[in-house]
């Protein structure tokens, strides 16, 4: 118990240092290192679906956004969103904060009109819902149905966000399919 508490205190320290480096000093590389340390500890103790784990993904996403690394930011914000939707639902304030950051990131990637931004956000939520259904089926031992949901998620992800990327890779692994080859790498 004492060891667990020490690890959580270390995670909190890494998180607070990382957040300070990002928000106060604009030292995003060092911030991401500290935040990833916090994330690693928190995931090992709490697991994926905990608000403190989500906060790490959120802050890492924010650091990437500040560096104008929008693809990486999108991945981190989407992981934070996945956790918050599972914990709180789509309409909770914690979830809406991440939703707002995702919208800003999608806009920064070049989608400027409301219709395109909403379409991208709908795709993000569709992927998320298919993945959650797949996870639910998998936990129930209904692997064929899980695979169908993961394939749906992967299809939406590929259509809207391209053939490469961490999210598509994770969905492909869950579905038990090979990751698609890189563009031009056939």
UniProtKB/TrEMBL annotation:
Q: Where are the TPR repeats?
A: 54-87
Q: State a single Pfam family of this protein.
A: TPR_12
Say if the entry is tagged with keyword Repeat: yes
**Please, which domain of life does this record's source organism belong to?**
Eukaryota
Q: What InterPro entries does the database record attribute to this sequence? A: TPR_rpt (IPR019734)
Give UniProt keywords alphabetically: Repeat, TPR repeat
Give the stretches traversing the membrane.
none
Record carries keyword Repeat = yes
Protein name in the entry: Tetratricopeptide repeat protein
Q: What species does this protein belong to?
A: Nitzschia inconspicua
Lineage, broadest ranks: Eukaryota, Sar, Stramenopiles, Ochrophyta, Bacillariophyta
């Amino acid at each position: 118990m004492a060891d667990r508490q020490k690890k959580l205190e270390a995670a909190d320290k890494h998180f607070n240092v990382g957040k300070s480096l990002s928000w106060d000093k604009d030292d995003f590389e060092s911030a991401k290192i500290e935040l990833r340390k916090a994330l690693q500890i928190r995931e090992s103790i709490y697991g994926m679906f905990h608000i403190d784990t989500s906060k790490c993904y959120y802050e890492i996403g924010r650091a990437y956004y500040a560096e104008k690394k929008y693809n990486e930011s999108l991945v981190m914000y989407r992981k934070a969103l996945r956790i918050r939707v599972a914990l709180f639902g789509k309409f909770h304030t914690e979830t809406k904060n991440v939703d707002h950051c995702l919208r800003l990131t999608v806009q920064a990637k070049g989608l400027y009109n409301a219709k395109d931004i909403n379409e991208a956000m709908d795709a993000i939520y569709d992927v998320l819902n298919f993945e959650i259904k797949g996870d639910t089926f998998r936990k129930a031992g209904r692997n064929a149905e899980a695979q169908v949901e993961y394939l749906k998620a992967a299809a939406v992800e590929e259509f809207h966000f391209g053939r490469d990327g961490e999210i598509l890779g994770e969905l492909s692994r869950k579905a038990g399919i090979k990751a698609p080859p890189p563009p031009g790498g056939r």
